[in-house]
User: Fold these one by one.
Assistant:
Number 1:
Amino acid sequence: MPARFDASFSALSVATRRGILEQLGRADASISELAGRFRMSLTGMKKHVSVLEHAGLVTSEKVGRVRTCRLGLGRMEEEAAWMAEYRRLWDARFQGLDRLVEELKLKEKGHGRKKGG
Amino acid sequence: MDAKRGDEPGFQEGRTTVERTTDRELVTTRSFNGPARLVYEAWTRPELLKRWWAPKSTGLVLRACDADVRVGGGYRFEFSHPASPQPMVFFGRYLEVVPHARLVWTNDESGDGPVTTVSFEEKGGRTLVVMREVFPSAEALVRAAAGMEGTEGGMPESFSQLDGLLPSLRGNAG
């Protein structure tokens, strides 16, 4: 690989790989679709995808001449785990809110009774 | 999530659901046994917010809780936790305030935090709360989620700190 290519590759790599993950989050895509979208050579895109595959963030499958990429299990597990934690935080908050609403209701009733009686 | 749903999805008692509806939106729902007026008060009066925003089971302590709930007004929540040397600060401002019905606020502690919309819908004495968090991009959501690019006192940082705390919620979640 020429040195110049390597330099530009590493400079662009982080932003591009993030973009690839974002893109695959929307829909699966072939290497050539990704290359087109990021205005990149097939070779360059293959290299990015192989780095992402190595990290478990992307998987790809070749059917005929087309290699289709999708988000890897690593990425999905990460997302599922974060969603579960997010839900746990809000569920804990909402349990507290539930108790507070019950308390506010009782308080109102109490005041109502005082006023009525 | 569950095959058995009431005719009004989300009104099911005491159940928190979270769904990633688009690549940059999270929607959380929960219904409460009380009128929208009271649920809204609990979201807008600082002395009431304090009572539930930092659940004990998380170990979080709400050090400061200011909320000037009117359009353009600001809020600031400061948490501490024994495991965190730095306090975690969340702040933003209210974009929409419709009493007993709807709140919209920004999350400004990180450069690309979501806009949060909470609606309160009352039906038969119960209130359905729907909270939508819309991030400026799918990337921003992923970043918040993964705790990548932590900024000091910022949301991603806070979430990565929360990551370590949240397993303790497991026992209380059910």
Number 2:
Amino acid sequence: MKQPFEKVVEQHGGTVLRVCRVVLGVHDAEDAWSETFLSAMRAYPDLPDDANAEAWLVTIAHRKAIDVLRARNRQPTPVNDVPEPPTTLGVPGDSDKDGDLWQAVAALPDKQRQAVAYHYVAGLAYAEIAGILGGTTDAARRAAADGIKNLRKNYPGATKEGAPS
Amino acid sequence: MNISPGEFGSATDPGTLTRLRDRLGLAAEAEGLLDVAFTTLDSPVGTLLLAATPKGLLRVAYDIEDHDRVLDTLARQVSPRVLRAPKRLDVAARELDEYFQGQRRSFDLPLDLSLSRGFRLLVQQNLPTIGYGQTRSYRQVAELVGNPKAVRAVGTACATNPLPVVLPCHRVLRSDGTVGGYAGGPAAKTTLLNLEAT
């Protein structure tokens, strides 16, 4: 039996918002969240009852995020002096530790950042992440591992223990 | 290093999610995706669940009916596109408030009666002919709808009324004058009858 969509929002809204923040940064995360759940609501009656709702939502969020990333990379004409890009991660008032982590996450290549978000924030299996990113399960695992390796290198507060597998 | 969801999510305060969920309700309404909107209303007979389709008020449910179960049923019977979106229920909530404050004697709301069929629907539709402060027996209601022998069926129709208070099944009593059963419990029925008697 399919539960009311309200329950889907209640159960997965927080996770999807964290995923959007890791992939896109705080600034664009809220719009991506809204578009994700609106699309999900449109398609919800056709979702099989036994589907993994979280993986389904992350898949939709991934597509919305790609649109945003593409729009960002399509930035206009070259100039001599590149202005410092505004940070897309971290908000004023964040503790230094958080700010540093967001900076390090934002600096990751897209695929690594996505793999880290979908595995470590959404808790998806690498096979599911491969389905979302395209490519093999091994490639998804490698992207997440490379992402974590880069974060270890660039995030000063990192410790070496306790990484979930 | 240990990256926990909590660490990435330290900024996802509940206020942000509440705001996003409110925004989703409005966007879903604007896009025509909001098949069932619901809200809750505090009242002298406990917290009431109010649910509406674009057509009108669909369901009023008492606490003791278990709101989660009621929403599950609506998801199955009407549409799973169910969202808390109070705006669609503004007028219904206001009229119910006025009623509970003794300032309103009848309801003027578009209704969606699609949860009821046949004889039950016929009985429920006729309930508003019992005016504010009046009561009828199950037998009298059976006669009213032209089927004097269907006393038990009238009882069932009242018990399955999807819109209690608005369709006033609380005004239907046993022939011996005792209040009889009620979806909201006998105490709620007595409260409504007392409210209307003052």
